[in-house]
Amino acid sequence: MADTEPVINKGLEGIYFAESSICKVDGQAGKLYYRGYSIEELCGNSDFSEVSYLLLNDKLPNGNELEGFRQQLADERYLPKSVVDFIKENSMRMHPMDTLRSAVSMLPAYDTEAYDNSPGSNMRKSVKLISKSASIAATIGRVRSGGDYVMPDQSMGHVESFLYMLNGRKPDPKTVKILDVMFIVHAEHSSNASTFGVIVAGSTLADIYAATTAGIAVLKGPLHGGADEAALEMMYNIGDPDNTEKYIEDALAGKQKIMGFGHRVYKTYDPRARIVKGYLEDLQTNGSGELKNLSQIALRAEKLMIDKLGASKGIWPNIDFFAGPVYVSLGIQHEIFTPIFAASRMSGWCAHMLEYWKNNRLLRPLEKYTGQVDLKYVRIEDRK
Ligand SMILES: CC(C)(COP(=O)(O)OP(=O)(O)OC[C@H]1O[C@@H](n2cnc3c(N)ncnc32)[C@H](O)[C@@H]1OP(=O)(O)O)[C@@H](O)C(=O)NCCC(=O)NCCS
Asked: 320, 352, 374, 382: which one is catalytic?
């Protein structure tokens, strides 16, 4: 019987590979839910630590549970000396995402239960990864701007401590609040490319350090996590708000993709982008100098892109378009935007791994072979 012709779903578009109760992305209605709670509900009421607990445990914590979880995050914040030394030695020689990936993959060396794949151990390692990835991202930023490792302060909250380790001084509450929202909106997004990469690695029963390290590698690219830095670079290239429309028109005419727009699932406005855009509108009104310029460029580019491609092609702004100017307004350097994304997404990656391992099956899709068969080997001296 002849083989049936396989259907190829390029980019795995439209393919379901598992069930999950972690996150719902409703790409038609423009809604996002973590464990049933809308992203607006969580950004308005919660914080990243509590959201991480929710993602990992499938319920909001009670007071004691939350206090315990915050304490576990605080206890795990310090970095081993050799990880700090590695960052100091290498972070100027490679992309911060490469430094982050390598530093995270050193962590099993300091974990006596690194290869214990039991659920309890994986939950403890998840907390360690969420905590330490933020410390690593902060230390990369700190070292790249000429500073030294800052010992974490255990009395601080997770995002407050991140900023403290990045800048060496206690941050103001407004900055902490805005960055906390940025951490929440980046924490989870169902089976996006990096989460899928994590699950592919974990489905081999590689440990959670190996799996999340794979996630960092996948997140790096400009079609995924790297889009925020690329979008900001475009805004700097535009320079003057009055150049915005011509720049975008020319780029589209040249068939270039505008970074920070489009999404495989959202065919309407990304609800995370709407939340982050609120901060830009504030900057446009109350900011000055570079920040005012950047916010004007971003908002003019958004309007033009929606007019041209929104309804007609379903290309709308995604979260990465507005994230860059907001980070700039918080004094965060460009090259650690994607490491911050990774440190936030660590919660979602770990939640997915804990869930997938309850019903694990090796992920192994097929390719349709288009090459030849039964070729005869030709000895090297007989080849042309
Ligand atoms: C996110 C992304 C990879 C989704 O891609 P996808 O579902 O595979 O869609 P495709 O890349 O196949 O694009 C489909 C069509 O929309 C166009 N398109 C998609 N994103 C576009 C963008 N940002 N700017 C201009 N055109 C875009 C493509 O050129 C293509 O047009 P065509 O049909 O005329 O060839 C894509 O939209 C993109 O590259 N965006 C920029 C990077 C980015 O912001 N990534 C972060 C995502 S959260």
From this structure: 320
Distance 202 CA to ligand 1 centre (A): 28
CA distance 159 to 67: 15
**Model confidence pLDDT, tens digit, residues 295-353:** 999 999 999 999 999 889 999 999 999 999 999 999 999 999 999 999 999 999 999 99
Can you read off the two tokens belonging to residue 332?
């965060």
Q: Running DSSP on this structure, what letter comes out for residue 317?
A: B
The count of other CB atoms within 10 Å of the CB of residue 325 is 29
Its domain, for residue 256, covers 227-329
Count of C-beta atoms within a 10 Å radius of residue 143: 20
Dihedral angle, C-alpha 179, 182, 183, 185, nearest 10 °: 160
Query: Which tokens go with 136?
Result: 């690593």
* 224 carries an active-site annotation: yes
The reply to whether 82 and 143 lie within a common domain is yes
Instruction: Give catalytic status of residue 334 as yes or no.
Output: no
Give the residue, out of 9, 257, 341, with the most ligand 1 atoms within 8 A of its beta carbon, to mutate for a pocket test: 257
Cα angle 214, 219, 221 (rounded to 5 degrees) comes to 120
Q: Tell me, what's the pLDDT at 290?
A: 85
The CA-CA-CA angle for residues 321, 327, 331, to 5°, reads 155
Count of domains observed in the chain: 2
CA distance 21 to 1: 40
261 DSSP assignment: B
Ligand 1 centre distance from Cα of residue 366 (Å): 24
Instruction: Decide if 58 contacts 65 (C-beta within 8 A).
Output: no
Q: Are residues 205 and 246 in the same domain?
A: no
Q: Which of 361, 351, 295, 282 is CA-nearest to residue 328?
A: 295
Q: What is the CATH number of the domain that holds 348?
A: 1.10.580.10
Per-residue pLDDT tens digits for 263-298: 999 999 999 999 999 988 887 777 778 888 999 999
Whether the CB-CB separation of 168 and 150 falls below 8 Å is answered with yes
Between CA 267 and CA 251 the distance in angstroms is 22
